Amino acid sequence: MKDSTFNPSDCDIQQFREDLLNWFIHEQRDLPWRKDNHPYKVWVSEIMLQQTRVDTVIPYFERFMEEFPTMEAFAAADDESVLKIWEGLGYYSRVRHLHSAVKEVVEHYGGKVPDTQREISKLKGVGPYTAGAILSIAYGKPEPAVDGNVMRVLSRILLIEEDIAKPATRKVFEASVRTLIDPNNPSYFNQALMELGALVCTPTSPACLLCPVREHCQAFANGKEQELPVKSRKTSVRHVTLLTAVLKSADNRYLICKRPSEGLLANLWEFPTVEAGNWQYSTQRNLLSHHLQDQYQTTIHLETGSFTHVDHTFSHLKWSMDVFAGEINGPVDLQAGSLLVTREELETFAFPVPHQKIWKAYKEKYFSDRER
Fold this sequence. Notes:
Helices cover 42% and strands 13% of the residues. The protein is of the alpha+beta class. The chain has two domains: 8-221, Hypothetical protein, domain 2 (Endonuclease III, domain 1, Orthogonal Bundle), CATH 1.10.340; 238-366, Nucleoside Triphosphate Pyrophosphohydrolase (Alpha-Beta Complex), CATH 3.90.79. The protein is elongated, with a radius of gyration of 25 Å.
């Protein structure tokens, strides 16, 4: 690879394909979405695997397929059920877009996932990588499926020194895959590149001595495997301090709130929360108490100290949450998107991970072993 332009003479492409595919055939992991190449299963698995570890995805995928075994079943699901099945996976816009796109496939394509680049790319949430993965894995079409894993692997094999954090760099890798991909087995070829990145050509300390394509790797030959890929630094993470309350009414119901329909964690449920900011109150407890009493026009008593602390980091944001337990004394002026629910009802709503941790900590502190 010179100046990011792939020259076929730089490696024996046919031998590279054979070495890579033979390794994959013998070493691939037994993953539930590999049991068949149904487009729907490939699609769901690829959306789940975006920014999420394989080990985390497996039980989610299995539950998802049990709940929604067909696209028709998923298309017919209500939004609350969709968010609940995804609860804990994060990046909830992924499942919202998937739900919208599957509805479109059912309504406009007769339940068959489109098998052309032009048609499949029109679906909501289906970018170049997802389109390439579905077309190659499910339909056997020689389309590139370039994600961070693949860019890392090929940056080393082909000695590509472009910054992979720049969107334009993806085109360099897509062009390289089009040259390298095995036209007779594009499904295994793309999966093999992904698997190589997951198991051998890892972000740090790549296992070069175990690599099935080491003889083709220009970074290894030049002693640069630790220097690649080139990736510019991410923007800094913003820190926000939040105060949260788990509030119980006299009739043993809990106050929960629905997040806005747009933005971070849209449409998920949470316990009442306020940003600490620069409010002029003597303590966090006083700030939270005043805020909640003003918002819900009721009397609230919070315990003196927080019962748990939760830190949660998003890609661009870190929440630092102090959580108080309290009681509602009197009628509540429920705002739009707020509910008083029983414990049993509460556990049917979809909450983001930090609020799931809060509820778990609350049960451990305030419920007996039998009640949990």
